[in-house]
Design brief:
It comes from Pedosphaera parvula (strain Ellin514). Pfam families: Ribosomal_L20 (PF00453). Belongs to the bacterial ribosomal protein bL20 family. Binds directly to 23S ribosomal RNA and is necessary for the in vitro assembly process of the 50S ribosomal subunit. It is not involved in the protein synthesizing functions of that subunit. The chain has one domain: c-terminal domain of poly(a) binding protein (Orthogonal Bundle). It has five helices and no strands. The chain has helices at 6-19, 31-70, 75-84, 91-100, 102-122. α1 (6-19) runs parallel beside α2, α2 (31-70) packs across α4 and α3 (75-84) crosses α5 (102-122). The protein is rod-shaped.
Length: 123
């Protein structure tokens, strides 16, 4: 007699249907379509976990650049100066400071500009 493996199959299908909760129409009701929809969803999630990192870095750079230009310098010169001054703040923290605390960001700009001047004097 052939073994059907029914309990395991049913469990797998129910798991897929539950994963498709919130999808519209047959994509949330029928196993065949729910399996396709969840597979696509997993592909998008995998891709976009990496894309999210890129988009946030772009956002932070734009915020830092806007504040740096308001303070009289450019993004690249500001970052070069921070590196020369050995200030170990990442772009996420710098963008937060730029958006919330204008005075502290102004001090960072001064530190960066002084470091650039000493760097130029050495060279």
């Amino acid at each position: 007699m052939r073994v059907t493996n029914a309990p395991a199959s049913r469990k797998r299908r129910i798991r897929t249907i539950k994963a498709a909760k919130g999808f519209r129409g047959r994509r949330s009701k029928l196993y065949r379509y729910a399996a396709d929809a969840t597979d696509h969803g997993k592909q998008y999630a995998f891709r976009d976990r990496r894309a999210k990192k890129r988009t946030f870095r772009q956002l932070w750079q734009a915020r830092i650049n806007a504040s740096a230009r308001a303070a009289g310098t450019t993004y690249s010169r500001f970052m070069e100066g921070l590196k020369a001054a050995k200030v170990a703040l990442d772009r996420k923290v710098l963008a937060d400071i730029a958006a919330t605390d204008n005075a502290a960001f102004g001090e960072l700009v001064k530190v960066a500009q002084n470091a650039l001047k000493t760097k130029a004097a050495k060279a």
